[in-house]
Automatic annotation (TrEMBL):
Family as reported in the entry's similarity comment: Belongs to the serpin family.
PANTHER family to which the protein is assigned, alphabetical: GH10112P-RELATED, SERINE PROTEASE INHIBITOR, SERPIN
Protein name: Serpin B
GO cellular component: extracellular space
Entry superkingdom: Bacteria
Source species: Saccharopolyspora flava
GO molecular function: serine-type endopeptidase inhibitor activity
InterPro entries reported in the protein's UniProt record: Serpin_CS, Serpin_dom, Serpin_fam, Serpin_sf, Serpin_sf_1, Serpin_sf_2
Length: 362
């Protein structure tokens, strides 16, 4: 239930007003934050763990299990996951972090010319995300998002395409009224009458639509206005609703839809208590001996649902900079090539243990 709690808590702070259509991926954001928690220490790590409601190891077990789809005869579910640390070639990466990263699905460490050619680095990361997401997310990083001070990025990309266990008949899809917040309209609505998981409790109805590979879609319909009901839907209530589902004959009328969403997550994560990550106080010592901070967290998602099944993609990028870019000054050359004094003291008290004059070191 911890993952549900995280998802609903961030959704509350991330999503636009309830009258606006929106989509995001708790899997992708959780992956990026889990990678960051593995890369951080001290208070920085604890804030991430608190926001995630779980330790990285437990989160990894959850995400790793869900990255393995079961393919039965005739089913061809497609799931692609990439967890990539992009780093400037001169940024030293701890071997222990490389090892820990290897436990995450689709993990890799790759170089990008952040400081030498920020635009080339941006295009390189975008091309990799586009490849993983089958071009559903062609440009995760907008122009200007990679700066000369950027030295690393933690990027998760996700693609999922699965067919329904039993497809909706296209011939039965008809235009039906949909009562949107800004007025009624006619929308293509799929229809099926079959045995499905169903529950009605706590002011909600839930219908489960099984798909290939062990994937299941859950359509949640509130009894009251969504704007009111969504704010009251917490992890306990949602978990109870899902647990109450039973197989029943259901006549389901569900609109076809394609929805997308994009957001910068710094402020929503701050509302969950993640602060140090974005400040010079960030502790990235498990990742590198250089002082880093996250400059921004970018997220984008898209989901397409039709009669055959669903196709979705998401990506999350945590852009990291050095906390300060300081040019080391040229050393001051001091050569003791003539008589000098030499003292040995207790630093705190100032007591002198020795005081010497050196006129001839030979």
């Amino acid at each position: 239930m911890t993952h549900l709690d995280f998802a609903l808590a961030l959704h509350e702070r991330l999503a636009p007003p309830p009258t606006k259509t929106f989509c995001w991926s708790p899997y992708s954001v959780s992956s990026a934050l889990g990678l960051a928690a593995t890369a951080t220490g001290g208070r920085t790590r604890q804030e991430l763990v608190t926001a995630l409601r779980d330790e990285p190891a437990a989160l990894l077990e959850l995400l790793g299990a869900s990255a393995q789809l079961t393919a039965a005869s005739g089913e061809q579910p497609v799931l692609a996951v990439a967890n990539t640390l992009w780093a400037h070639a001169e940024l030293p990466i701890e071997d222990s972090y490389r090892l820990a990263l290897g436990d995450w699905p689709g993990s890799a460490v790759r170089n990008a010319p952040f400081r030498d050619d920020p635009e080339a680095a941006r295009k390189l990361i975008n091309a990799d995300v586009a490849e993983t997401t089958r071009d559903l997310i062609p440009e995760l990083l907008p122009s200007g998002s990679v700066h000369p001070q950027t030295v690393a990025a933690l990027v998760n990309a996700l693609y999922l395409k699965v067919s329904w266990k039993e497809a909706f008949e296209q011939a039965k899809t008809t235009q039906r009224p949909f009562h949107a917040p800004d007025g009624d309209r006619e929308v293509p609505t799929m229809t099926a009458s079959r045995t499905l998981g169903h529950a009605a409790a706590d002011g909600w109805q839930a219908v489960g639509i099984p798909a290939a590979g062990g994937v299941e879609a859950i359509a949640l319909l509130p009894d009251a206005d969504l704007a009111t009901a969504e704010a009251q839907l917490d992890a306990a209530r949602l978990s109870g609703l899902l647990g109450a589902m039973e197989q029943r004959k259901v006549e389901l009328l569900l609109p076809r839809f394609k929805v997308s969403g994009g957001a910068e997550l710094t402020e929503p994560l701050g509302a969950l208590g993640v602060h140090d990550l974005f400040t010079p106080a960030a502790d990235f010592t498990p990742l590198t001996d250089r002082s880093l901070r996250v400059s921004e967290v970018l997220h984008e998602a898209v989901l397409d649902v039709d009669e055959a099944g669903l196709e979705g993609a998401a990506a999350t990028a945590m852009m990291m900079r050095l906390t300060a870019v300081v040019r080391e000054p040229d050393p001051i050359r001091v050569e003791f090539d003539r008589p000098f004094l030499f003292l040995v003291r207790h630093r705190d008290s100032g007591a002198l243990y020795f005081l010497a004059r050196i006129t001839d070191p030979s």
